[in-house]
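Reopening this one. Same input as before:
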Amino acid sequence: MQEDQDVVIVGAGIAGLATAVALKKVGIRALVLEKSQGLRATGATLSLYPNGWASLDALGISHKLKSFYSPCTRAYITDTDTGATQEISFTKANRSGAELRVVHRKALLEALAEELPMETIRFSSNLTSITTQTQEGSSPHVALIKMEDGTTINAKALIGCDGVNSKVAAQCLGLTAPVNSGRWAVRGLAMFPHGHGLNQDFKQFVSVGKRAGFVSLNQTELYWFLTAKLASWTDKSITRDPNKIQREVIDNFATDLPPLFTEIVQHSDLSTITWAPLMYRLPWHVIFGNLCKGNITVAGDAMHPMTPDLGQNECAALEEALVLGQQLGGLITQKTGLVPAAVARAFERYAKKRRWRAAGLITTSYLSGWVQLGGFGWHMKFLRDVVFYKLLYSRVLDVIIHYDCGELPCVTSCNGCEKSD
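Same output, byte for byte:
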């Protein structure tokens, strides 16, 4: 069976659903192909900084979430070796009044999915191959997507939002595979049915080769994490057993951390505990690689897998959704339509806007994690505690998290709407 689609998005994660919402708002229908049977719930929570909220505000989604999650205005970073604590402020808000909030990943996915017609997301959809058909000159005219069930989909535009191990990025664009950062992270969600009694401050603890922390989502739930160098986790066989991961954290990795951190880990919902190596794409592969080719491009982790040290993975994905909406929506406002040459130019403009931003986020996140894990020498501690935390961290973070992509273009005449360039 063959079918024709205007835009096909591979992956129903945050990048994929947000892109579908952005396109819907500018009058473009999209089909989202998701290999899972339902919305992916991997990772219990995520951090949304002002730049993420600005994108959600432009997508018309932010009001669904803000009332359920309180803003985190401060972070306290404690050196477990010396006991010294430094304070970082998140009080500067953006145009929408947004600040850092930690939210349930599933809540964001559901909020995005609710904006889409039911037929937009096609679950249990496994791709077997993606090719292009050239009809005019040397520019690909249609992306041919072959599915496991025998269906062939002809797409005027294809957007890969299929995560770190993206087939679209590798097979269609030739982007190199992500590399291991040499670190791992354990994450979980702690449940306190009668209330944990803690405020919204982000608490973080650092020592040589290890970093841990926690922050409140609401009065009963706390997100926690612990990250260290890869060689410190000797038994990889237990990394798929949440109960064993929890015991390993409590018995080995949290022994020099405050008792409160151990108590939080003990209250974890085991279904939320995950262990994973931290992967990232080399920034120069983003700068010099193909982020688009004809009518094919990528967004989110498919473009820029990065370490989570600045909490920008999902925020960047939301930014990309907005920019894709701006660029493809511009074709509608200009009455160009989704013709091959116009789509290719729109994707080129999108790649130009995102290339250096994505590479900068990858680099800054990696260096942030590297510095915070530190080393045994006095020079590394000086670099971390004095140069990074006291002089650079808040300034660099301030520039990153207050980035604003703007608004979506108006596809109909309306007062107070601004068109994106």
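So the earlier flakiness isn't reproducible anymore. For the record, Residues 184 and 278 are 5 Å apart (CA to CA).
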